[in-house]
Design goal:
13 strands, binds nicotinamide-adenine-dinucleotide, Rossmann fold, 7-stranded parallel β-sheet, alpha/beta
């Protein structure tokens, strides 16, 4: 947790030490970093994950290092028995489990709806039944869709463009309604393109930062869908972790509010490709352009004023620092993989 300084962790640690926190999807990319932070801050953590989009390697290491603090349930959030076991004794539930891909949701909208919307309802029900005080939900900036107004503010009407966006937005409505009807506090963190170490680079659905890095490190040209002028608010994973910790420890009720979690910097895909090529010191690998993918929006950047006001959030890692440290991490993995295959 090198990115959170004492100034960040001291107030959080005193509130999280020895509290029981459940993390759904805790074996995944963002969830794994969140679990690292919670363990360092002394929380007692239960992870529920069905490993449908992750493996057990990170969680196995975390259990090795913190055997008394971490419990892992391999199971689905849709399964009431696994879910009720996962939330036993929990004060706070951080809900990250989801099917995270826009193209996959276009291929199988029903599955995406069941896991992302119905699954969120199951998590809320189980948390409420177990007497948890708060559920923090990982929402998505895809809810804004192609509404041209920038930066994206939470007061804008949502215009989900894909089954993924629709299901994630459904999850927000469920959180708000659970706060209203059942008195359990909820918070919806709308993340903007999160990137960082340990994000999957190998799937056809890989996010753009690891996909580009994988190409550059293998001396291949990256593929850009569309003309590359589309923009995103690339946000280092430490910022999403910090937002979860702030929401989990807020002294004030959050009442189902939605808050943007981004870095607030607009970057085109072409600019991203250029920055990563520079960091990887390659200059002769021009991107290959393919037709745009269905369901993807043109422009996105966050206004984080509400996150500041409600949670005291501000980014702990800037875009440049995040891209640099993430590139270093993938370079080390690449070297390590090369060395082990040469042995
Ligand atoms: N990565 C981003 O840029 C981004 C942006 C916006 C929102 N989000 C949201 O953040 C959350 C975490 O995303 P991530 O990038 O870490 O994705 P991820 O796929 O790495 O993590 C999700 C985890 O959930 C697990 N999972 C899936 N279905 C499950 C089920 N039925 N029961 C239990 N576990 C299940 C997967 O195995 C995986 O480990 C998701 O809710 C996603 O929608 C991510």
């Amino acid at each position: 947790m090198t990115w959170l300084t004492d100034q960040h962790t001291k107030p959080l640690g005193s509130k999280l030490h020895n509290t029981i926190v459940t993390v759904t999807g805790g074996a995944g990319f963002i969830g794994g970093h969140l679990v690292d932070a919670l363990l360092t801050l002394g929380a007692r953590v239960t992870v529920i994950d069905d490993l449908s989009n992750s493996d057990a390697s990170t969680i196995a290491q975390q259990i090795d290092q913190h055997p008394e603090q971490l419990r892992f349930i391999q199971g689905s959030i849709l399964d009431p028995v696994s879910m009720s076991s996962a939330v036993e004794g929990a004060q706070t539930v951080l809900h990250l489990a989801a099917l995270g891909s826009v193209p996959k949701s276009v291929e199988d909208p029903a599955r995406t709806w069941v896991v992302n919307a119905t699954g969120t309802m199951r998590v809320l029900s189980a948390a409420h039944k177990a007497g948890a005080q708060r559920v923090v939900y990982s929402a998505s900036s895809s809810a804004y869709g192609d509404n041209p107004a920038l930066p994206k503010q939470e007061s804008q009407a949502p215009e989900p463009e894909s089954p993924y966006a629709a299901a994630k937005l459904g999850g927000e409505s469920l959180c708000r309604s659970w706060s209203n009807c059942y008195g359990i506090d909820t918070a919806c963190l709308r993340y903007f393109n999160i990137f960082g170490p340990r994000q999957a680079a190998d799937s056809a659905y890989a996010a753009v930062v690891p996909a580009f890095l994988k190409c550059y490190l293998n001396n291949q040209s990256p593929t850009i869908f569309g003309d590359g002028t589309q923009t995103r608010d690339f946000t280092h994973v430490s910022n999403a972790v910090y937002a979860n910790l702030l929401a989990a420890t807020s002294d004030q009720p959050i009442n189902g509010q939605t808050v943007n979690i981004g870095a607030g910097v607009q970057t085109s895909i072409n600019q991203l490709a250029q920055s990563l090529a520079q960091l990887c010191t390659v200059n002769d690998l021009d991107p290959i352009y393919q037709p745009p993918r269905t369901g993807e929006v043109q422009d996105s950047v966050s206004d984080i004023a509400r996150a500041k006001a409600v949670l005291g959030y501000e980014p702990v890692t800037s875009l440049d620092e995040g891209l640099e440290s993430t590139t270093r991490w993938y370079q080390q993995q690449h070297l390590h993989a090369g060395n082990s295959s040469a042995e």
